[in-house]
Design a protein that fits this description.
It is built from 7 helices and 2 strands. The protein is mainly alpha-helical.
């Protein structure tokens, strides 16, 4: 059975949000404004959000359903076709912590800087769920993640897309 057309748009939808989150992350990491001392904390949250979205977009490019865990729970045996509405209501995507493994399993790509990924993941969890860590330069951590993990992955995917487009055109 062919895939629902709405599902094909998932990678592009995710990518658009990822770009916005990356823009905010970079801005919060480099721009200091008196009265906005929380921006380094926000840079970590936005960087993790951007990372999650970019990784899911790369994975979803292989197949949109690969970003979801427990796919079998989406079937209630009453629908002929899995649609976007059903995914929004019942779908659960892989957690940020597991995305490097899902990326590797689905695409063969490894996270370029796994130690940085883990440091940012830990900082993000602390900030998001209980209290900010006070022993790190959080803006520096965000920039390291952006430029040693996201930038290479984006560049690699852009080169792959251009290469396959060139082959198709040629």
């Amino acid at each position: 059975m062919p895939m629902n057309g709405e599902l094909r748009s998932i990678p592009d939808r995710i990518l658009g949000l990822g770009r916005a989150a990356l823009t905010q992350a970079n801005h919060h990491a480099v721009f200091m404004d008196p009265g906005n001392e929380h921006w380094p904390l926000m840079s970590v949250l936005n960087t993790a959000h951007a990372g999650e979205l970019f990784l899911k977009a790369i994975i979803a490019t292989e197949h949109p359903l690969l970003i979801f865990k427990d796919l079998v729970t989406l079937d209630d045996k009453n629908l002929d076709e899995l649609d976007l509405e059903r995914l929004l209501m019942r779908g659960r995507t892989h957690d940020f912590e597991k995305l490097p493994q899902v990326l590797w399993a689905t695409t063969g790509l490894r996270i370029p800087n796994p130690k940085c990924y883990e440091r940012l993941r830990q900082a993000r969890n602390a900030i998001q769920h209980f209290c900010p860590p006070n022993d790190r330069d959080l803006s520096e951590l965000s920039l390291e993640f952006i430029y040693t993990i996201l930038d290479p992955l984006i560049a690699d995917r852009s080169a792959s897309t251009q290469s396959s487009t060139t082959k198709t055109i040629a």
